[in-house]
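Onboarding guide, step 5: your first structure request.
Type a short instruction followed by the sequence, for example:

Predict the 3D structure of this protein.
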Amino acid sequence: MKIDPNATSDLSAQIAKAIRDSIVEGRLIVDERLPSEAEMAEQFKVSRATVREALKRLAAQSLIRTQRGAFGGAFVNKLSFEEAYGQQVTTSTLLISMNEVSFETACEARYTLERACAPLAAQRRLPDHLADMRAEIVRQGQPGLTDERFCASDVAFHRALVNAAGNPVLAFQLAGAVEGMQPLMNMITFTARSRERIIDLHTNIADAIEAKSAAPADEALGELARYTVELAQGVFDERAKSRP
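The system replies with structure tokens like these:
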């Protein structure tokens, strides 16, 4: 592992990248102990404080873990989908909000990905997945349910649909779409949408998945995508009219 002391990026970031690359490429394997701070400081020709900062960066990404004691040190961590899930959501949310991605683009991405789950969900759904979807539909129809709780239930319904596909890699990739993009979409459309229509479409999706019929689920998701874009356009038009 090498770094370039003349590069513009700071040395701790270079060290973190070098170690990360070694993990990704399999040169450092799960549970392998990294060299000590003193050894890495000598290897990279930097201070121990710089090495320590690099290790903090890697720990923040859950790529390494530290242990105390005689047999302690820094070890390559086994990164789970569950641990990475939150990072995926945060990254996706920041990318969408900071880079001025249009509502239509975000909506297209989210529903294209989600519709890819429908055939798998129809084949692989378990009773627990169906129960989760039905429970959220019931919750969404409760009188007096706040907009915030309705939006949270909306996200939970679609998370259950994605989970029903039974593919952890696909679920991880969709984390940003469901947990990141969808709340942003709800923030824009919640004042204009019809809860009854959302519930009807959710019911159609759940019925199709329970019947192991992918086509109706895909059709309902397509209608939901079109409805979401229409709602957003209406909201944007109203905002434009209200501007001086």
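Each response can be followed by summary notes, for example: The mean pLDDT is 87.
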